Amino acid sequence: MDLRQLSDEVESVSRQYANAIGIARDDTWFLLKLQEEIGELTQAFLMLTGRARKKGRTEQELDANFRAEMADVLCHVLLMARHHGIDLEAEIKTKWLTTQPGEKNPSATERAVEPRG
User: Fold this and answer.
1) Crossing angle for the helix pair 59-83 and 3-21, nearest 10 degrees?
2) What is the CA radius of gyration of the chain?
């Protein structure tokens, strides 16, 4: 599955959910929903790694929850990118996959300060 196909499918689910409960998905909603999901991922990570109460959950349940929250974050990144008309595949190629075989791959810090263009 490619990102565009996944984005289409996630958009369909999100739109149905929003329609069913009467949510207006605007710029603010997309950002706050992503922030909420990152918080849930953080909590799942803390529980999985023993840095927060496990609330009676087994290791398998904690691991499953961590994986599920990771998926939620990815899906909400896709939704937000789609809402803002961002082609994530193109941006990933530009930002992360710009080196050719045999070339030195710049560090994340170097990529962050290099001008795009």
Assistant:
1) 90
2) 18
Residue 44 corresponds to which tokens in the numbers above?
A: 């799942």
Two tokens, residue 2: 């490619």
CATH topology of domain 3-87: Helix Hairpins (1.10.287)
Of 99, 37, 84, the C-alpha closest to 114 is 99
Domain boundaries, the chain: 3-87
> What does pTM read for this prediction?
0.83
**pLDDT tens across 76-93, in order?**
999 999 999 999 999 999
3-state secondary structure the chain: CCHHHHHHHHHHHHHHHHHHHCCCCCHHHHHHHHHHHHHHHHHHHHHHCCCCCCCCCCHHHHHHHHHHHHHHHHHHHHHHHHHCCCCHHHHHHHHCCCCCCCCCCCCHHHHHHCCCC
Instruction: Dump pLDDT digits (tens) for 14-46.
Output: 999 999 999 999 999 999 999 999 999 999 999
